[in-house]
């Protein structure tokens, strides 16, 4: 389970075809090993907020969200910039845009939520519902407004001020139309995620609020029981 609060971006180092799918090797940007961090632990000019993130706790079998897609870490290496490998099964290749990423592309990274961690976003499973395209990007003051096509299969789950995960980022629907919706992006989110690398026409992953799905299914079950009486 994830929160949609992106920890850092990653850079695809290598993308290769593998039997039954595709394999990605990703470098975690803005991170370093604990050993490297220890070498400048006494740097009085660096604040805690500025300290690089450590990804040394990654291990084989751990879940990680890569641009909103829950994947399993199969290999990991520490170093000046930690790297890890994930495997994309055929279904993942077909249903997400990760099947077309190439070396140099930026992705969003979030490790699975720890049981004692603060829950700052919303419930994100890493199970992408669909993809869509960016139809507009506009600078509004210090913020940005991103507009997207609204796929028909998820339109019933999209409501104004509701939550949605876009490329794994927990965001709030600012505006919803018949076939489109928009979100407002604050500078921190823009700067610390791959949204700063996106252009009109680029694909993104969408995951709707799973609570809406549960409510829908409960209502359907109740309606079926009433109809059967």
TrEMBL record:
InterPro entries, per the entry: ATP_synth_asu-like_sf (IPR023366), Lumazine-bd (IPR001783), Lumazine-bd_dom (IPR026017), Riboflavin_synthase-like_b-brl (IPR017938)
UniProt keyword Transmembrane, yes or no: no
Example GO BP: riboflavin biosynthetic process
Placement of Lumazine-binding repeats on the sequence: 1-122, 123-219
Annotated metabolic or biological route of this protein: Cofactor biosynthesis; riboflavin biosynthesis; riboflavin from 2-hydroxy-3-oxobutyl phosphate and 5-amino-6-(D-ribitylamino)uracil: step 2/2
PANTHER family, sorted: RIBOFLAVIN SYNTHASE, RIBOFLAVIN SYNTHASE ALPHA CHAIN
Name of the protein this chain belongs to: Riboflavin synthase
